[in-house]
Amino acid sequence: MNIYVDSSMSDDSRRSEIYSGSVFAHSPSPNSLKLCRLAQAMIEEVFQPFDPLKVHNHISAEKCAEILATLKPRFIHHSESKQCIQGMLADLGCDLSQTYFDVPRMRTAFPGDFLKSGIAYAFHPHRDTWYSAPYCQINWWMPIYDLNSENCMALHPHYFDRPIKNSSAGYNYHKWNLESRQNAAQHVKTDTRVQPRPEEPLDLDPQVRMVCKVGGAYQFSAASLHSTVPNTSDVVRYSIDFRTVHLADVRSRIGARNVDSQCTGTTMGDYLKGTDYSHIPEEISSMYQDGTEVLYAKA
Ligand SMILES: [Fe+2]
């Protein structure tokens, strides 16, 4: 696996590298910092008068879940957050008329055993391609506050090309949307929702923990195995992630290789065009449909 730091490679070459398992790290830019500051302001407002990084010392997990259940959707749908993503992508050489993104998610990882499920789910090792993501999907991840190696995210690059026995065959994105997502805030202590998981013991080492500055971001393939690092620090980790696909790659079915995913459905309907937020044209997104989008259509 190659790790490129502030590479000046073109977006076409960069995507090609990412599809073979490379990671790209980017220094903070005005737009990424603006996005982080927006997130910080929203977080600080809901947790005041407490320090958001220490909030687990002051309020119950239930109360915290309740607050996050309101905060996270507000951030996701904030008009300014989409504009910041557009700016970030343009600054990094992405062609906005070809690049589609999904709305940025805010994630949290609390120290110890505080709130590990539901609205603050601690992600076990997984590939996003087990969750119906296309093989051309690129994941973007950035910290909202200062990060350390004990509260970040880990990549497990030796599994990029190595199949893992997993339960993705039981996962369908449309079914998940219909049945589970709305209920995330209810899962405070345990999470009973069925998610694709490894079904064999994994050797998570060697692992790569990317620690970057606030507003720094890194990109990796949706096919890369990654996980939430158990937070052994004493501060909460707040992060932002979002995903992109490039229309030419979607159309040509270019992307990482599928080594072990068997899920059904597709997230192709979620991405918004970098210029006007329109969806991927139906004639192209339909190439990824398998009929389950109708089976599990929202009532
Ligand atoms: Fe993921």
Describe the structure.
By secondary structure, this protein is α+β, with helices and mostly antiparallel strands. It has a single domain (3-295), classed as Sandwich (Jelly Rolls). The chain has eight helices and eleven strands. Strands 1, 2, 3, 4, 5, 8, 10 and 11 form an eight-stranded mixed beta sheet that branches. Strands 7-6-9 form a three-stranded antiparallel beta sheet, with no helix packed on it. The radius of gyration is 18 Å and the shape is globular. The termini are far apart. The mean pLDDT is 92. Fe (ii) ion (FE2) binds at residues 123, 126, 128, 226. Residues 123, 126, 128, 226 line the site of fe (ii) ion.
Secondary structure layout plus pairing:
Blueprint (H helix, E strand, L loop, with lengths): L2 E3 L5 H9 L3 E4 L3 H18 L13 H16 L2 H13 L7 E3 L3 E5 L28 E6 L9 E3 L17 H7 L28 E2 L7 E5 L4 E3 L8 E10 H6 L19 E2 L8 H4 L6 H4 L4
Parallel strand pairs: 1-2
Antiparallel strand pairs: 2-8, 3-10, 3-11, 4-10, 5-8, 5-10, 6-7, 6-9
Helix pairs in contact: 2-4
The structure holds fe (ii) ion.
Identify the CATH class. Answer: Mainly Beta
Q: Label the CATH architecture.
A: Sandwich
Distance between the termini: 44 Å
Shape: globular
Give the number of helices. Answer: 8
Keywords:
single chain; 299 residues; alpha+beta; Jelly Rolls; three-stranded antiparallel beta sheet; binds fe (ii) ion
